[in-house]
Amino acid sequence: IEREGCLLGKLPVSPLKVTNTTGAGDTLAGGALAAVLSGEADMKMAVQKGIDAAYQLLLPRSADQILGTGE
């Protein structure tokens, strides 16, 4: 996470094997922005909420690939 040129830290992510990542970046940004607009003052927590939202978006796509039903 970077703010005004200063590194604030890194956040862990759980990798998923997906081929269709459509919307993941928008979801991450939207989740982080929603957290800030709802009063989250800690930027790391706001970004983590965005990461969590993107993960939830991609998780079913990962399961589809494992089962052979997805793209």
What does this structure look like?
With 71 residues, the chain is mainly α. Helix content is 55%, strand content 6%. The chain contains 2 helices and 2 strands, in the order ββαα. It has helices at 24-37, 43-67, and strands at residues 2-3, 6-7. Helix 1 (24-37) runs antiparallel to helix 2. The chain is elongated. The model has no long low-confidence stretch (mean pLDDT 89).
Give the secondary structure arrangement, pairings included.
Blueprint: E1 2-3, E2 6-7, H1 24-37, H2 43-67
Antiparallel strand pairs: 1-2
Helix pairs in contact: 1-2
Please give the largest β-sheet: 2 strands, antiparallel
Provide the residue-averaged pLDDT.
89
Apparent shape: elongated
Figure out the total of helices. 2
**Helical residue percent?**
40-55%
Strand neighbour order, sheet with most strands: 1-2
How far apart are the termini? 31 Å
Strand proportion, as a percent range, falls in 5-15%
The gyration radius over C-alpha positions equals: 14 Å
- The helix/strand series, from N terminus to C terminus, equals EEHH
Low-confidence stretches: none
The secondary-structure class comes to mainly alpha
* Counted beta strands: 2
